[in-house]
Design brief:
globular
């Protein structure tokens, strides 16, 4: 599974953390969310997709299924 947050779109609403706290973290100093690599593997794919749908900026992408572990860190 590949989970990404577009850092240019994220505005720090943090709805993803409310839904899937293990998979996301919040950088207070940058006012944005990031993907937590280790947490994604422990998070149900349905919760990740719910977080994706809940993002008002549509900054989260979830690709694949739970059998593939791929994550992309912000650049």
């Amino acid at each position: 599974m590949k989970v990404q947050i577009d850092q240019h779109r994220c505005r720090g609403h943090a709805r993803c953390l409310d839904i899937a706290a293990e998979a996301f973290d919040f950088l207070d100093d940058e006012d944005r969310a990031v993907v937590v690599d280790a947490g994604v593997g422990r998070t149900d794919v349905e919760l990740l997709r719910e977080a994706q749908q809940a993002c008002p900026e549509q900054a989260i992408s979830v690709e694949g299924d739970s059998t593939t572990d791929e994550y992309e860190r912000p650049r």
